[in-house]
Write a structure and sequence with these properties.
With 587 residues, the chain is α/β, with parallel strands linked by helices. 30% of the residues lie in helices and 22% in strands. The strands form 6 sheets. Strands 1, 4, 5, 6, 7, 8, 9, 10 and 11 form a 9-stranded mixed sheet that branches. Strands 12, 13, 14, 15, 16, 17, 24, 25 and 28 form a 9-stranded mixed sheet that branches. The structure holds oxalic acid and manganese (II) ion. Oxalic acid (OXD) binds next to helix 7.
């Protein structure tokens, strides 16, 4: 096949001349094509089948053991000026990066098939959607892109009509970590990724396009590309609020996006729009509307069970791809926290031996189409998206951050977002459990200087008339004995309920130096198994610790130099002063 769009045809031809594949294959996106690729990969061992009775149409992929997570230290933003990429990104000049990548791509597809994947991030007919074409030599990438995006002929038609698309070039190369780079060229709207087959490094529509490149475009065009889930909450009275929540990787976005209400709140309904990425646009009526650019989930498997996330547990029982999980004697997939069965083979295919560590890799993943999810709503396909009532930031914090608080206004909310920090997880290569700053949960994903990004956020004040309220949550607060104080999972709906009732001016709160916090009595805790002491701790702050946090936040913001918006520093000072005043009063 070919295309009518000369720019696309020329690019595909030039990539083929450089990479020298044996065959070029244009993906149509049909079910038959998916099945043929699966059969081919079953034949060469890239995939194996799982128990066909209990896990129909489910497959296991074992990646190279050195290729199991995103590689932030090998991920670059290549702008002419280093300042434009900012200290939040690794930077290389476009010329140097092209030189390096050209050498790696030269002849790298010899003996392989080159797949051309036209894809559309967002509903095909939405004016907010953006298209791209990924060229890859990995059929595993093709089938994952099929589940995760709207790809194939329908996307190609749109690309041919629009004439613009993001160019993504990917090769698994020889999986040598010394020859692995993920390069972004925002000014060229292009991405080049070499040497990794892992999701976030290789499925270029996701982090590379829908966050890094899109955030860069969004700044120029007046919208936001964010690392946020989108969930709809329908109250017993039938009012639906849509909430967008930004949490760092592997902090429970997927669980929150498909939450099941606890028994006491059974007449609430929860609708999943997206579990990882939101594109937010101001609309004509002055509201912020969101679409999910993806159409599938690439979620963390360990910990998924009927109690933590029954919707996810059920949705991955058919038509799913598992990457790096363990298997049982019956050839079912197995992972830590599954709660039934036991592992026979670990994620590397070895006989399971606890001395080798966890049976499933802690960052093992499932890929499924969003339509597998029981709480999926076809509003996820609505071209106009959904209006957002609240934006929620959060991280994994043992101490300091309370269960929930509300920012005073938009500008303060931007500070709250910028203050997001979290303990690191297995989703990225590196030490797990260390606190790192992760403003707006975008540290690994913002395609330009964070200081400019905060300015862009602050500018929304002038762009929309009805800005969402901004909140911060922390499900992970612990007591001195290291036990979690909040039960989490479905019970998080109680916090979301407070949030939307605040949006409706119905719920109570007390004003503190850091914003509005619920009193224990402001939360619906009927039937909740929690001590009064735990609830008190969750809804109060230690002003001294918070002041230390604010001081360190101020230093962090200042470290971005002159580009840091004055308004953000002013907000930081306001909170700091209020905390100092509180401490002075108390002493
Ligand atoms: C993801 C991530 O895979 O954030 O969504 O790492
Ligand atoms: Mn993510």
């Amino acid at each position: 096949m070919t295309t009518m769009l000369p720019e696309l045809q020329d690019w595909v031809d030039s990539v083929a001349r450089q990479t020298r594949p044996d065959t070029i294959y244009w993906c149509s996106g049909t079910e038959d094509e998916y099945q043929e690729l699966v059969q081919q990969m079953l034949g060469d061992g890239t995939l194996t089948t799982l128990n066909e009775t209990t896990y129909p149409n489910c497959y296991l992929h074992r990646s190279d053991p050195n290729d199991v997570a995103r590689v932030e230290h090998l991920t670059f933003v290549c702008t002419e000026s280093q300042e434009d990429a900012g200290q939040n990104n690794n930077w290389m000049s476009p010329a140097d990066a092209h030189g390096k990548m050209d050498a790696l791509f030269d002849g790298c597809m010899r003996g392989r098939t080159m797949y051309v994947i036209p894809y559309c991030m967002g509903p095909i007919s939405s004016e907010f959607s953006r298209c791209g074409v990924e060229i890859t030599d990995s059929p595993y990438v093709v089938i994952n892109m099929k589940l995760m995006t709207r790809m194939g002929d329908q996307a190609l038609k749109r690309i041919e009509k629009e004439g613009t698309f993001v160019k993504g070039l990917h090769s698994t190369g020889d999986l040598d970590p010394e020859r692995r780079f993920i390069m972004h060229f925002p000014a060229e709207l292009s991405i080049q990724s070499f040497g990794s087959g892992y999701g976030g490094n290789a499925l270029l529509g996701k982090k590379c396009h829908a966050l890094r490149i899109a955030s860069y475009q969004a700044r120029r065009e007046g919208w936001l590309a964010e690392h946020m889930l989108i969930v709809g909450l329908e109250s017993p009275e039938g009012a639906v609020h849509y909430v967008a929540c930004a949490f760092p990787s592997a902090c429970g976005k997927t669980n929150l996006a498909m939450l099941i209400p606890p028994d006491e709140l059974h007449d609430w309904k929860v609708w999943t729009l997206g579990d990882d990425i939101a594109w937010l646009h101001p609309d004509d009526t002055g509201k912020l509307r969101a679409i999910n650019p993806e159409s599938g989930y690439f979620g963390v498997v360990p910990g998924t069970n009927a109690k933590t996330n029954k919707n996810a547990y059920d949705m991955i029982r058919h038509d799913a791809i598992f990457t790096n999980v363990a298997t049982t004697e019956d050839n079912e997939p197995w992972w830590e926290g599954k709660q039934d069965g036991k592992p026979a083979k670990d994620w590397q295919g070895r006989d399971y031996d606890p001395a080798n560590g966890p049976a499933a890799h802690p960052n093992s993943r499932f890929t499924v189409a969003a339509t597998n999810n029981r709480s999926y709503t076809n509003l996820a396909d609505a071209p106009e998206g959904v209006p957002i009532s609240a934006i929620v930031f959060g991280g994994r914090r043992k101490h300091v951050a309370p269960l929930v608080y509300e920012a005073r206004n938009w500008e303060h909310g931007v500070l709250v977002g910028a203050s997001t920090a979290s303990e690191t997880t297995a989703a990225m290569v590196g030490e797990v459990g260390v606190i790192r700053r992760d403003p707006m949960a975008m540290k690994p994903f913002c395609g330009y200087n964070f200081a400019d990004y905060w300015t862009h956020w602050l500018n929304f004040k002038n762009l929309t008339a009805h800005l969402p309220k901004i909140f911060h949550v922390n499900w992970f607060r612990q007591n001195d004995g290291g036990e979690f104080l909040w039960p989490g999972f479905g019970e998080n709906l109680r916090v979301l309920q407070w949030i939307i009732e605040r949006c409706e001016h119905r719920a109570g709160a007390r004003e503190t130096a850091i914003g509005f916090l619920p009193r224990p009595s402001d939360l619906d805790t009927v039937g909740l198994d929690i001590s009064a002491e735990a609830l008190e701790t969750l809804t109060t702050i230690d002003s001294r610790k918070f002041r230390d946090e604010l001081i360190s936040l101020g230093e962090y913001l200042e470290s971005y130099g002159d580009r840091t918006p004055r308004e953000l520093l002013r907000q930081q000072e306001l909170v700091l002063d209020a905390l100092s005043e509180e401490l002075a009063k108390a002493s």
